[in-house]
Amino acid sequence: MARILVTGGAGYVGSHVCMALQYAGHEAITFDNFSTGWHDAVLFGPSFEGDLREFRQVLAAFEKFRPQAVFHVAALSDIAQSMQKQDLYRAVNVEGTRNLLEAMKKSDVRKIVFSSTCAIFRPNVTDPLAEDAVIGPSNIYGDTKLAAEDLIRGYEESCGIEYVILRYFNVAGADSQARIGEFHRPETHLIPRAIMAAAEQTAMVVNGNDYETPDGTCVRDYIHVEDLALAHLASLEWLDSGRQSDIFNLGVGKGHSVLEVLHAVAEVTGKKIPHTFARRRQGDCSVLVSDGRKAGQLLGWVPTRSELRAMVQDAWNWHRTGGYAR
């Protein structure tokens, strides 16, 4: 059994990672400032309330729990917001990562699994993106995650902190038993927004229907959050087995447009999705699809729950519980 510090463990992805760790026999310690996370999501281990921007708080968590490794999930991740609040995103996503790495260095913790993003790649490349695809973020969020990647690589060179960087594509779904799920205020992600529109029969806004795609709406590669969590366990095993630091894209290699997602939500819920079209959001691109073969070949990671209807069904089941507002 390993003791793992999970930054952002009270958030959507982080809570599912903590769940996967507990099921695998590890101890997950949530580090979160609860600005966007939820106390009700901390079901799978102890928690420590702290802010990555405060080095002393980060170090205090290491001194209290003495983890053997870190899963760094915490981040600000709203692309549109990042374009308006650049300083905040750099403070949390970049300087927060620096504080975490410094605390690891001081505490002699030498393994980190980092949640990165496909937003680091150059936009509007229609082919599936492999790990060596051209880098070129089109938004501040992607820029800050790339800067965090660079920091992590630098700390390996300077003090031997080994890493696995996981570049997420679009995460969706919920715990199959509907105990935890995706719950943001305000909600910015497509599937929960569509589910809310279906449940409340209120119109949602689709940003852009003039992209270079078959139906004019953005195409994204969706991955079930439980599959994503299992990739973190595979990454820990990778590092524990003494293999070298590496980077893996996490996606299924197939994209779905916004309108395809709305159709799937309508099928699962049995309700129409009222929607209108508006102009594109700043920083968005037409297509983001992963070439995830490397993760399969080297990590042995194979997504098994990432079919679109299954993800929507789990998200719908979670929504019907009332989420963390219940």
Tell me what the structure shows.
- The protein starts with a strand and ends in a 6-residue tail after the last helix.
- It has 326 residues and is of the alpha/beta class.
- It contains 10 helices and 13 strands.
Summarize the structure.
This protein is of the alpha/beta class and 326 residues long. It has helices at 12-23, 55-65, 79-84, 86-107, 140-159, 190-200, 225-240, 258-269, 293-299, 308-320; strands at residues 3-7, 27-32, 47-49, 69-72, 111-117, 162-168, 170-172, 204-207, 219-224, 246-250, 255-257, 275-278, 287-288. The protein starts with a strand and ends in a 6-residue tail after the last helix.
Query: How many beta strands in the DSSP annotation?
Result: 13
Unreliable stretches (pLDDT < 50, length at least 5) are none
Radius of gyration: 19 Å
End-to-end Cα distance, whole Å, is: 34 Å
Largest sheet: 7 strands, parallel
What percent of residues adopt helix (DSSP H or I)? 25-40%
**Main structural class:** alpha/beta
Across the major sheet, the strand order is 3-2-1-4-5-6-10
Overall pLDDT confidence: 95
Number of helices: 10
Q: What global shape is seen? A: globular
Strand content: 15-25%
Order of helices and strands: EHEEHEHHEHEEHEEHEEHEEHH
